[in-house]
Design brief:
- By secondary structure, the protein is α/β, with parallel strands linked by helices.
- The protein folds into two domains: 119 residues, no CATH class; 169 residues, 3-Layer(aba) Sandwich (Rossmann fold).
- The protein is built from eleven helices and 15 strands.
- The strands form three sheets. A six-stranded parallel β-sheet has the order 12-11-10-13-14-15, sandwiched between helices. Strands 3-2-1-5-4 form a five-stranded antiparallel β-sheet.
- Strand 2 and strand 3 form a beta hairpin.
- Helix 1 crosses helix 4, helix 5 packs across helix 10 and helix 7 runs parallel beside helix 8.
Length: 337
């Protein structure tokens, strides 16, 4: 399952190639609470079909009424991009389903340049990170490949959005937990691979859409070339496999590195990596373990939910409170008991 950004851009390109009128809307700025973050996109076809989202649905409905023929309207205008704002007053916020005090600013591109999308999508499909800059005064789009993601930005004239490649997840260990976690990651737009050198585990493991890699974890992590949009999770319960993967992953820019195991096993692992493999307390600060947030999970499905939640929080830059840390929560339960 590809990311929603890629789906929106690909659909917009396909509609334009078919001769359809297309509006590309991007959340440019928000004030107060907002249902969608800046950079979120949607594509709107001239007959009212929509892909993607910029709100909970009410703003999409308003855009359909204003800019399509779905309700016997005049259809889309032509010309330069426009900026529209929703939710300035309390009445508008209620009308458009925005949270109390929320305000949303959108950039509307009418019939975005087909040539630019035809250049952009192959770059994204090839795994490139692409900086898309829109000049609202001219309507011109400038594309640049880059190695470092930049924060979405809009200064009133220029909109900057860094796109692709999609987030990737590499799982070490082809077990039941990996099946649940892989499925959840796919639904969240991750491209997922699972690695295990043990044929007895790998032969019967199967989740549609997940790449299966038979090999030693350190070699696989190295070939995976983790970047800022990658996460690596050790699930084998075999330190000979998980530790090899971690040693490679810890020296990569991966945004999340974690490993399954009890508090005792994770402490032993940290001591082992420091004593025998030259790691340090500083280098192990990026290592999550025990992984997941504490929700009292016992089954593989529930554990996968807790791990996916922690991965998404890290991806989104959310600092979780100490109470949801597995180690801290379990220590508190022991004290209370």
């Amino acid at each position: 399952m590809e990311s929603i950004d890629l789906l929106v851009l690909r659909t917009a390109r396909d509609w334009l190639q078919a001769g359809e009128r297309v509006l590309l809307a991007t959340v440019a700025r928000t004030w107060g609470s907002s249902p969608r973050p800046v950079g979120s996109m949607m594509a709107l076809r001239g007959d009212g079909r929509v892909v993607g989202s910029v709100s909970g649905g009410c703003i999409e409905d308003d855009l359909i009424h204003r800019y399509t023929t779905a309700y016997q309207g005049d259809g889309m205008p032509t010309g330069l991009p426009q900026v529209v704002r929703y939710g300035v007053s309390a009445d508008e916020a209620q009308r458009f389903g925005l949270p109390c005090g929320g305000t949303l600013e959108l950039i509307l591109e009418f019939d975005p340049a087909l040539a630019s999308l035809e250049q952009l999508l192959p770059l994204l499909d090839s795994g490139n990170l692409v900086r898309r800059e829109l000049d609202l005064d001219s309507g011109q789009v400038h594309l640049t490949t880059t190695r470092v993601p930049e924060q979405f930005g809009f200064d009133g004239r220029y909109m900057l959005n860094t796109l692709g490649p999609g987030y990737r997840m590499l799982l070490i260990g082809a077990g039941v937990l990996a099946e649940y976690l892989a499925t959840m990651a796919l639904f969240n737009g991750f491209k997922v691979a699972v690695c295990d050198p043990r044929p007895e585990y790998m032969d019967d493991w199967n989740v549609a859409g997940v790449e299966k890699i038979v090999g030693m974890p350190d070699d696989v992590v190295r070939a995976f070339t983790p970047d800022l949009r990658s996460c690596i999770v050790g699930l084998s319960h075999d330190p000979r496999l998980d530790d090899l993967a971690l040693l490679e992953a810890l020296h990569s820019p991966a945004f999340y590195i974690g490993v399954i195991g009890s508090r005792r096993n994770n402490q032993s692992r940290r001591e082992r990596l420091i004593e025998h493999f030259g790691e340090s307390e500083a280098s192990l600060q990026r290592l999550h373990g025990p992984i997941g947030i504490y929700i009292g999970s016992k089954t593989p499905a529930e554990i996968a939910v807790s791990v996916m939640a922690e991965i998404l929080a890290t991806k989104n830059g959310v600092a979780l409170p100490g109470e949801v840390n597995v180690s801290e929560a379990k220590r508190a339960l022991e004290v209370d008991g």
